[in-house]
Amino acid sequence: MKVLFVTSEVAGLYKRGGLADVSYSLPVALAKRGVKVGIALPYYEKIKVHPVHCVGQLAIDYDRRRELMFIFKTTLPGSKVPVYLFRHPLLNEYDGPDIVERFGFFAKAVAQLYLYSDAILGGPYDIIHCNDWHTALVPLLVGESSKVGYRERETIQSKHAKTLLTIHNLLYQGEAGVSITLKLGFPKPLFHTFMTPLGRAVRLLTEGFEYADMVTTVSPTYATEIMNGDHGVRVRDIFDRRGDMIAGILNGIDTDLWNPETDTALPVTYSARTVAVRKKHVKQQLQKAVRLPESDVPLFGFVGRFEARQKGLDLIAGAIDGLSDTSYQLVLLGTGQPKLVAAFTALAERHKNIVYINTFDERLARRIYAGSDIMLVPSKFEPCGLTQMIAMRYGTLPLVRNTGGLADSVTDGKTGFVFGPYKKSALVAKMNDAIGLYVSSPGKFREMIVRAMKQDFSWDHQVKAYLSHYKKLIR
Ligand code: GLC
């Protein structure tokens, strides 16, 4: 089986968030299972990789011009998975104005590479696996459009591949003015337009829902939430019409990259067997490094994007007033929106038990995963979430809200702490429960740590679900 994995970010080459981790570890896991997988990614200027060589070029009609695109090939660092990098000035940067149009252009290039260039790809692929809005146009462009009489249908080599779209975050829809259809040179009736205050628009993600042969998301609970319209986007009508559902497959983590037994960022390594004696050294070293008093109160950690809509930082900020400063410590790491950064900088100045580090530092993140007692993940919504799984692997109990992938990976009182309503009082109550357990029932706390460490969040397990969907698609 051959799978072309199309994405806007891949860890080791260009990373912005959790999508990059999955775009690395899932293809690696598929390759281990014998799938011939290749990755398609824009060749952003920031990508520095060696060796890399040019394997061909494509002519793409875009915005009434003929654009020349060079395709480079390299391998995913630390693996043999081939990566096709798309070089064109429009794809030099990820961010910037017209981001949606530019990813539309990337999608057109991917479709063109697939449809017209067996030579570069070494023959047709069975599955094109797209991710999020950035690549959600690929199914339409690759020829699903034949359903509605797309006129180039006769000229393409084959419409051999089936397309699968995975949603990592429904919040981002990829909205553009309807002129994008002209730029792409595809007939407007193929798109599903809607009215905005600024005129007619299209959403790339919607086109993915309409045209992909299958749609999945990154946890079963998030799939149900989306189908119920919980996140403010109505998709049920589309899926009723399609006669299928969004399937939820929980992400895995790369358990070699995240391994407390081998992690070189840690002052001492440990396993489920040695965690009880060794983890406290990691905690002490962390307290020292971030200048927290080396006292034995429970240490909470937070690692993530400082983003107001998703990650629950407003709850954390609110909860601080409801907790006694002397009963716990908190270390937060991450960058993001200036308002949140300022708020947490101020909070850390006022509270001696709180430290906020406004950078992204992977080695420090690892020390926080390992050195904290409890990892906070109070997200308003969370399609999957990797933090809670990494925390458990490092014997740090996650404290999460009952939503999306958090609900699917953490069991209250067994492998972590789970609270329900998105309210600061609910977070305070759960944090107090966790603090109480740490202080009064250290034996039970340790049991939970060992149970959490023994959970299997590896891709070995999860990749089977993707394989069975791929097989269903090509049958
Ligand atoms: C997005 C989601 C996150 C998920 C990740 C990988 O970043 O917000 O919940 O874990 O994608 O699928």
List keywords for this structure.
alpha/beta, Rossmann fold, binds alpha-D-glucopyranose, six-stranded parallel beta sheet, 2 domains, globular, 475 residues, nine-stranded mixed beta sheet
Mean pLDDT over the residues: 94
Question: What is the CATH H-level superfamily of the largest domain?
Answer: Glycogen Phosphorylase B
Fraction in beta strands:
15-25%
Number of strands: 18
SS field, number of helical segments: 17
CATH topology of the largest domain: Rossmann fold
N/C terminus separation: 12 Å
What form results from the Cα inertia axes? Answer: globular
Q: Helical amount among residues, as a percent range? A: 25-40%
> How do the strands of the widest beta sheet line up side by side?
3-4-5-2-1-6-7-11-12
CATH class of the largest domain: Alpha Beta
Q: What class, by secondary structure content?
A: alpha/beta
Question: What is the count of distinct domains?
Answer: 2
Which stretches are low in confidence, meaning pLDDT under 50 for 5 or more residues running? 144-157
Bound molecules: alpha-D-glucopyranose
CATH architecture annotation name of the largest domain: 3-Layer(aba) Sandwich
Radius of gyration: 23 Å
> Main beta sheet, described?
9 strands, mixed
Characterize the structure shown.
By secondary structure, this protein is α/β, with parallel strands linked by helices. 37% of the residues lie in helices and 20% in strands. The strands form 3 sheets. The protein has a 9-stranded mixed beta sheet with strand order 3-4-5-2-1-6-7-11-12, sandwiched between helices. Strands 15-14-13-16-17-18 form a 6-stranded parallel beta sheet, with helices on both faces. Strands 8-10-9 form a 3-stranded antiparallel beta sheet. Helix 13 links the parallel strand 16 and strand 17. The chain is globular. About 3% of the residues have low confidence. The protein binds alpha-D-glucopyranose. The site of alpha-D-glucopyranose (GLC) has 14 residues, from helix 1.
